[in-house]
Amino acid sequence: xxxxxxxxxxxxxxxxxxxxxxxxxxxxxxxxxxxxxxxxxxxxxxxxxxxxxxxxxxxxxxxxxxxxxxxxxxxxxxxxxxxxxxxxxxxxxxxxxxxxxxxxxxxxxxxxxxxxxxxxxxxxxxxxxxxxxxxxxxxxxxxxxxxxxxxxxxxxxxxxxxxxxxxxxxxxxxxxxxxxxxxxxxxxxxxxxxxxxxxxxxxxxxxxxxxxxxxxxxxxxxxxxxxxxxxxxxxxxxxxxxxxxxxxxxxxxxxxxxxxxxxxxxxxxxxxxxxxxxxxxxxxxxxxxxxxxxxxxxxxxxxxxxxxxxxxxxxxxxxxxxxxxxxxxxxxxxxxxxxxxxxxxxxxxxxxxxxxxxxxxxxxxxxxxxxxxxxxxxxxxxxxxxxxxxxxxxxxxxxxxxxxxxxxxxxxxxxxxxxxxxxxxxxx
Amino acid sequence: xxxxxxxxxxxxxxxxxxxxxxxxxxxxxxxxxxxxxxxxxxxxxxxxxxxxxxxxxxxxxxxxxxxxxxxxxxxxxxxxxxxxxxxxxxxxxxxxxxxxxxxxxxxxxxxxxxxxxxxxxxxxxxxxxxxxxxxxxxxxxxxxxxxxxxxxxxxxxxxxxxxxxxxxxxxxxxxxxxxxxxxxxxxxxxxxxxxxxxxxxxxxxxxxxxxxxxxxxxxxxxxxxxxxxxxxxxxxxxxxxxxxxxxxxxxxxxxxxxxxxxxxxxxxxxxxxxxxxxxxxxxx
Lengths: 428, 284
Fold this sequence. Notes:
The complex is a heterodimer of chains A (428) and B (284).
Chain A: H1 14-22, H2 25-33, E1 38-40, H3 49-70, H4 78-87, H5 92-119, H6 128-150, H7 155-168, H8 175-183, H9 190-219, E2 237-239, H10 240-265, H11 295-303, H12 313-326, H13 331-334, H14 346-368, H15 373-400, H16 410-415, H17 419-422
Antiparallel strand pairs in A: 1-2
Chain B: H1 2-30, H2 37-41, H3 61-73, E1 81-85, H4 96-104, E2 110-113, E3 120-123, E4 130-131, H5 138-144, H6 163-172, H7 179-184, E5 195-196, E6 204-205, H8 228-243, H9 247-280
Antiparallel strand pairs in B: 1-4, 2-3, 5-6
Helix pairs in contact in B: 3-8, 6-8
């Protein structure tokens, strides 16, 4: 892995020499995120979001472990134990709001990270495995976030759990037994709450493991870059540390600023008021909505209103919702264009900015709104575009599009192919 | 193969969605959904200013005390406040002795056990107790209120869209149902045990107007005149405190955090420029 010109780790003292011989952990870190990892010199700020996502996970793990010390996973006391944290635990309000809004921050940075990958073609060879592992992380995150939202045992917790596990009930023949088995009962209750808590504690560590694989797989070809042109010479790269640790520092500071503004000044802005009402199986909320990061998928789920032959609309919605994520696994084969970066793909670029992005925003809006006839109509058209974009339009574009000429190297893209620069080209 | 399969799946999902949309649009045009009374008569919360609004907002202690008085004399007849303890009232500016008195004179008593017989009993609350509910259980609450349980108010200002403004609007929003409502939606007129209030989600609620006349509660010296509007504001402020007792700590910590992070951001930008200085020039 890595490039032949990568800096080599040199232990600086006797202790580090001893460590390097017995357990080369410092060498491992040096090669992974230190000066031993050469990175393209032209990365823009969109390349900060991987590090930010890792940091968001660490915030969730640390705040989550402390919250778990005070939380009671029992349907009789869960709601009151969260209020106990908010009122009587020292800085409990801070931990709880940090964890609650930290989940939103995690999804914000991961969504930007994913759209970065979509625009710059990060899913293309040789980085397909990085993309696939990333999608596994995304699926695990969604499961973890969903189960975490159930834990406070408010109205949305309860009804959200009921609706989402109800999706499995749409599977023909075995659906209802599966739903009962997943919940440990016929409706969400103590058994469901306990297993959700157990899994909500476990999955972040699974995510951590898959992140290690994600980074490992990334380090084999090395990071991509905004031009999509592969690294050709040492001139094209800089060592990760200090260059990108410094650049990531700026991103980290901005991340924490946004986080602090939400956490301290609008901690309930992203939440649903109904979750401050204790779970009541006998009172259905007027509008059951998931957290904002699930809205686009929720809109796709609700967009199917008409049965297709013998397939009920509900099952179609469930299939489409899962398909909307699973289709991303096939992207390396759907987008066959040899050019990676959207910068050099005029058609791709138009469909990305004027097709995909507005569609996701519209789906998000529809998913968070009360499902009136108008909203359902809009989500049907937007969902239709979503599937067409990835499954029909993208494969066609990648065949018919005339791409713009690529720079011959990353260095040329950064400094321009000036005569002064030309003298820097290695001699033939 | 993958592309052919994907094309077919895409065609199916997109095609069927467009068919569904066309059918929906057709139904929308031919048989539009009937307008509902809620859609036409429900009003969004009034806009109202509180001392705790904004990033530097703080509670007005005197207002919280007046709000507590209203809760104690009016609301607590039916509503519980079960996540709040009497000891928390020290945050409202009461001394330890005053908190003890408030607890001891509270209209409801704390459930306990008769130490001699082991039978269920009640005793006077002490500062360590949570605010006792006016009813021993939900069945009793239901029986006493035409089958509607008065909700716990601890978190009310966080549990409704519109928050504090909603609670204030509801308290001041009781009125006679408009004539149009009777004409267009006779089924949405208030019944014998419900009361019209356009700020309530389905327009009619079981609770009768709790604050009806100016001077219903007697405020201490130096306090504003206890008009219905003033009382509604005061009790709303109190309920905002019960829902978010750490609001001031939160905003104070937030101000410090943002100032710190701005300095941190400056340092990070400086470090970044410094580290990259040689790479940004044409070439060193």
